[in-house]
Amino acid sequence: MYRAYPCVRGEAGRFASDTHAVVEEAAFTLNVNGRNVMAAMVSPVDLEDFIVGYLFTEEIIKGPGEIESIKIEKSVASVLTTNPFRVTGRKRVILSGCGGSAAGIDPKKLKPIESDLILPYDAITDCIREVMASDLHRLIGGIHSVGLAGPEGMIRRAEDIGRHNAFDRVIGYALRNGIDRSRTFAVSSGRISSETVRKCLVANIPVIASRGASTSLALDIAEWAGLCVIGFVRGEKMNIYTRPWRVEGAGDVAIER
Amino acid sequence: MYRAYPCVRGEAGRFASDTHAVVEEAAFTLNVNGRNVMAAMVSPVDLEDFIVGYLFTEEIIKGPGEIESIKIEKSVASVLTTNPFRVTGRKRVILSGCGGSAAGIDPKKLKPIESDLILPYDAITDCIREVMASDLHRLIGGIHSVGLAGPEGMIRRAEDIGRHNAFDRVIGYALRNGIDRSRTFAVSSGRISSETVRKCLVANIPVIASRGASTSLALDIAEWAGLCVIGFVRGEKMNIYTRPWRVEGAGDVAIER
Known about the structure:
The structure is a homodimer of 257-residue chains.
Chain A: E1 2-11, E2 14-23, E3 26-32, E4 35-42, H1 47-57, E5 67-73, E6 76-81, H2 121-132, H3 135-140, E7 144-150, E8 153-160, H4 163-176, E9 185-188, H5 194-203, E10 207-210, H6 216-225, E11 228-234, E12 237-240
Parallel strand pairs in A: 3-6, 9-10, 10-11
Antiparallel strand pairs in A: 1-2, 1-12, 3-4, 5-6, 7-8, 7-9, 11-12
């Protein structure tokens, strides 16, 4: 469910190479009676309970007795049911935990980052502090806070019930105000997943930093496309997983793969 | 972006009526050139930046210059672009922050809860403590932990990169093992949103409790369908938003609406 990932650990501007446990994120496809019913990002372990629960809560089956067989091959599960003509007819809606993007990610179709931005250490820790200090976040919880910042500090902060919505909000602000995104970085109160990495790549934002963790798939895509991912920014500490040269002073520390 | 919601506050088994700020969650539909391109759950404020950012990160527009007009009426935004024949062709994937359910919610199609379950106070606080004590959560972050429990304690715990996947996992476990779900409650490390409430309703799980916040829409649906929602379970404290009689001793405290 996780794997060791090499990184550069920073603390108060000093750096050392290290490894850190990163949670696995994998694409998963579900076919029912030969027809694709969903694709999701999941933790790729023990999928039977998930499949049965999903089919039930999506009202594709009334109970486990309607399942004839489940066959799982790598990231594809094929289910046969006793009600072969039942289909999922309801409108599909993007969820409040996420919102925004619901696009599949094909890294080869993404343009690598083009930017020579190098960030001062303090710009990153200061902006994370600022994004975490959201009044709404403190008052009510349950809201995601995302910022778009530059070397001189915060440019725009946005909050939304959907993490990806908040990303779209700051990117939309940058677009509408003609901001050079190759000179910016994104900061987030929440986890860095493949989809938020994808949004940064589409928008050519060269660095993403978060107080939280990153997923394995987010790091694989970021590594491929040249995005700098910084996780666990807490106080004066941070883990730089990819492109450490974008953080002032961290470029000389080797990441061993 | 939030509203006051009445609740019963519990602390170490003592109760008082109060109100608490709850974050707003609303359904939002986006039409581009007369065609529906998405429906999402959002924070219903300042939507222009979100719309422009979404259209850009989904590669429906190359920049804000391709937008002719944005018209927003209540929860529906209609956009006209200068590239009227561009469509979103990529595969839609459910996101890692959520996973699982992507169904729209029509409360009228949901069956109200049928259960006479009343829970001891300690069963709730103990199970939240247990679900938060996940080793993986502590080690790597970035993972959601959900449990299905009964009055006597935890029945099954599941972790997944997608919050809703973790719910589907424990529901799937209950189905496969013939557990009477009307005698169970769900505990979660994360926010309670409309979709997790919907999963409990489909599975006839009468109580959902979380360390985190609940959204306004989650509470509205729960209130309608008779689900007991308990938020901010921390140490000996909790906020009971709906059906307080399901918590031992809280049934006599008035919720003023």
